[in-house]
Every structure is written in structure tokens, then in C-alpha cells.
Design brief:
The chain is elongated, with a radius of gyration of 20 Å. The chain has a domain at 33-100. By secondary structure, it is an all-alpha fold. It is 68% helix and 0% strand. It has helices at 20-27, 34-61, 67-100. Helix 2 (34-61) runs antiparallel to helix 3.
């Protein structure tokens, strides 16, 4: 009976930290203005989507050695986009509610 080779050749991706504190820390400090936070958040979204697109291209051309990297980046881009859209929808709802208030 042949021995089973060790799994040391398999490299697992680093886990993605999606906690709110890590996102806020990467976007800006406590003294950052709202516009700065919004700008940095959108830049982060754009970079996340660009990374996902680059890994998708590498996966499609056979240059990507670990397809799990693409799946993780794709899911992260999807979740980040959904969060951004949800925040935009809440901002629009808040604006509409303010506009309905009587002076």
C-alpha cells in the first residue's frame, strides 16, 4: 500500500478580515471627514474590483495557479459592492425623508 503524500504543498489563502473596525481602520482614522471616508471607501471598492478582474483574467488564461484566490477576490468584490449599494440606498432614503419634512 502506497503512502499518502503530505499536504504541505497546499497553501491556504489568508482569511479576509471583514469586521467593521478593520474596514474603518483601512479607510481612515477617527478624525477623518465624511467625504474623506467616502472617497477612500470608493477607492477601496475600485481596487477590490480591479483585483478580482485581474485574477479572473489570469484564471481564464490558465496563469492562475490557485483558483481559490479568484473565488475569494470575487466574493470580496461582490460583498463590498453590495455593501456600497446598500449604503447608497440608505443615504437616498435619508435624503428623501429629509426632503419630505415640513419647514
Amino acid at each position: 500500500m502506497a503512502a499518502i503524500p503530505a499536504l504541505s504543498a497546499i497553501s491556504l489563502p489568508t482569511p479576509v478580515d471583514t469586521s467593521l473596525s478593520s474596514v474603518a481602520g483601512s479607510v481612515g482614522g477617527a478624525d477623518a471627514s465624511f467625504s474623506t471616508l467616502l472617497s477612500r471607501g470608493l477607492d477601496h471598492l475600485q481596487q477590490t474590483q480591479a483585483t478580482s478582474d485581474e485574477l479572473a483574467t489570469q484564471a481564464a488564461t490558465g496563469q492562475l495557479s490557485d483558483p481559490a484566490q479568484y473565488m475569494i477576490a470575487s466574493t470580496e468584490a461582490q460583498v463590498t459592492t453590495e455593501l456600497t449599494v446598500a449604503l447608497r440606498n440608505k443615504a437616498v432614503e435619508a435624503f428623501n425623508e429629509i426632503m419630505r419634512m415640513q419647514a
